[in-house]
Amino acid sequence: MINSKTSIDMIETGKYLKRLARRRGYSVKDIQHYLSLACPQPVYRWYKGAILPSVDNLLKLSELYHVHMEEL
């Protein structure tokens, strides 16, 4: 049996999400509205690597950024 442990680098993931948003010209408010978030705080926390988006939000972000969900 192969013991494979994959870990997600939250800091790098946050930086990547922020880069994608900038490349596409989206502000934090744009992301907030697109995802129907009550406030922009989660987006800022994603960008800092404090938390990760939910699977639902990752799917929506992948559609918005035109990338595969696995890439995020």
Helix and strand pattern: HHHH
Number of helical regions: 4
Low-confidence stretches: none
Rg, please? 13 Å
Strand content: under 5%
What's the total count of β strands? 0
Question: How widely separated are the two ends?
Answer: 28 Å
Q: Structural class, judged by helices and strands?
A: mainly alpha
Would you give an account of this structure?
57% of the residues lie in helices and 0% in strands. By secondary structure, it is an all-alpha fold. Helix 1 (10-24) packs across helix 3. The longest helix has 15 residues, at 10-24.
Notable traits:
72 residues, mainly alpha, globular
What would you say about this model in short?
The protein contains four helices and no strands.
Topology:
Elements: H1 10-24, H2 28-34, H3 41-48, H4 55-65
